Fold each of these.
Amino acid sequence: MLVNLNKILPRAYKMGYAVGAFNTSNLETTQAIIGAAEKLNSPVIIAVSEKAIQYAGIEALSQIIITLAQKISIPVAVHLDHGKTYELCRQCIKNGFTSVMIDASHLPFKENVRLTRQVIIYAHKHNVSVEAEIGRLAGIEDNIEVKTGDALYTDPDEARKFAMATGCDALAIAIGTSHGAYKFKGKPKLRIDILKQIAGQIKNPLVLHGASGVKAIWISRINRCGGDLEQAKGVPDDLIIQAVRNGISKINTDTDLRIAFTAGLREFLHENPTVFDPRKISGHAREMIQQVVADRIKIFGSADQG
């Protein structure tokens, strides 16, 4: 069942859980996401980045997601992740996306507001929800690259002014996470104090980006089969749970799915050297992704909320 964010995030905030936004760029990943969500009766957001669109094509990728989503009864939002331009947002809406993110966080405040409002005016005419971002995250993932020195925490007062000025349906904030598999050099830490201040000042559902767990068990499975991700470090489950308890209603996960896919491919090829059927190889990777998505859904608390 296709819905926009306004059909799932307000309830998530009220009931004290978060909805996972899981990135996809192909059939197998999409099947894994929907399979896990359906099995656990959880609402879900399927996210697509600009690079995923460049890789698979917007028409083909949107049709894969929409076709699978329409076959199940749980709420599914089809979401553009980190859209940088009005035109990209418009193209996604024309191709059936139910939600878009306009990420103008790299621009000055007034320019961020202006571009965000432009997207919102168009999107709302088509019953499409809009996520915006204030503050910036460190790290590298797809077309998003922010140097650590520029990774500003979101200012609570600025977040309040931005939410009022734009009327966005969801707001992504920066409280210490980062994109990619190498999120922390030392002990992982999130600024829950900043989150509490923001949640206390605005009613918009809040979003946490760069929140993959990058768990050691999956890293070790890659490394046992020839990989080299020894220093990878993500956001621990306890910090994710704290963030949800203090106002986060949507949590993005991309890196964890990539790691699971890679682990599945490496393991299968290592253990089955004579197999050359891509369906068997990719099918095993799909199973690994589904395990990770299911684990994240349980951590977020959205199971049985569909």
Amino acid sequence: MDFVQQNMMWVIAAAVSGAMLLSSFIRGGGKGISIPEATLLINREDALVLDVRETSEWSSGHIPNARHVALGQLAKHLSELEKFKDKPVIVCCASGNRSSTACGTLQRAGFARVFNLSGGIGAWSGAGLPVTTKG
């Protein structure tokens, strides 16, 4: 008990990070996919890239040929995405949290191959891959 009292900040930090990890599993999350794995799916299987960030974030730069549906609007736009149910779908956001929620929504809607882009658009651009403001 003395250890806990003396290291309260560390205990709280560990509890919060554990809760965040657990919540991503509960939400459905989708399978995490690395940047190299994502580029292979895009190039070899014509995977759909779905960006679920807000419009202002999307406008500042996104993966070329990605489709934009803000996370809050995803349920309303599922019928538009229906034609991609049998294709790989790579979902991205700024860091991977919102895309995890979107992956769960897509999986519950019957999408078979849903992937969460690990590290989000930040990891994509950090790897030196193209980002565009068009479309």
Amino acid sequence: MERELERLKEREPTMEAFEVNMRFRIDRARRRKEGQIILRGEEVPWTMTPQGLGKHYLGPHNWDEVATPGWMIHSTSHAVEKRGKHSHTGGGTLIFVMKGRGYTVNNDVRLDWEAGDLEMLPVTPFENVHQHFNLNPGEPCEWMAWRFWPFGESISLETRQVEASPEFKGPVKKDLYRPENFVPKSAYIRGQEIKYDGTLLDDMFRRRDQWRQETLGAPLVIKKKGLPQERNRMGLYRWYVHPSFTHVACRHTLLWSHVIPPSSRSGKQKHQGGRVHYVLSGKGYSILDDKRYDWEEGDIMMLPVKAGGCIFQHFNADPANPAELIVGEPNWTSILGVDLASGFEQLENSPDYP
């Protein structure tokens, strides 16, 4: 006679679980509200890694300390011919070139870039094996990688090293390098051809095919030279990724440059926050919820995520030179709305707006 397995009684929810959840939310809101707004570039150390020289601004090492947790942003500088080679499953990284000329070999395809361009590693079920090269060895190339980790979590993003940078002389940690089974066999499975039957399920397949068609052949390098500068209520923008763009390989992170002329200012906005501003050039300050935050080239300024949003405006403190900010924001617009539970409002226009 087979022994009947006794089903274990499920644990009843307890006040302890309720309180842990409540305190978790209260604590996260407090950390975002009180988190660091400015990261000084001169205070973020350069470190030599298997990829080469890098500066890690935002990541798991400081998410509990900053106003916009979840971002993984680092910059690099290399005057040598090449950096290390590594592989990402998932993909989705944006790389903004700040200085120099070079190219990337991604999955055996060469992608040329120069200062002001944006490179994209596409979201893929396979991997992006890539390596960056300097076309003018002896002169530094500098670029900045942007990732928002909640998106990475959703696509099972993982990175493994393939080859170390020639600059790296440290110990090799094998567990950080790419194993043979890094891309599982299931990544290559393909199903039947779908002829849409009008059901809502098949509408999902239709959306899948539309996405594949739109991103197929989309450029992996967006050239600054081909982008117009827009004069809008906030000032002078150059959009690299916008919610209305369907011709780009990655749409999950919005990214644009914002130029503020000498002694001028941006418009004033109310926004939920979550934006990150990297100061590419110039110096100035931002008024954020009636408090002044000074910044200069190489710094990062963040808008906190908090109930009711935040009110901000940027000012160029230099009477002779423009300031330029590179701005990134998660593209929540189609799933959470542009208001993001706080309201997206223009309170004052830039004087550079007609």
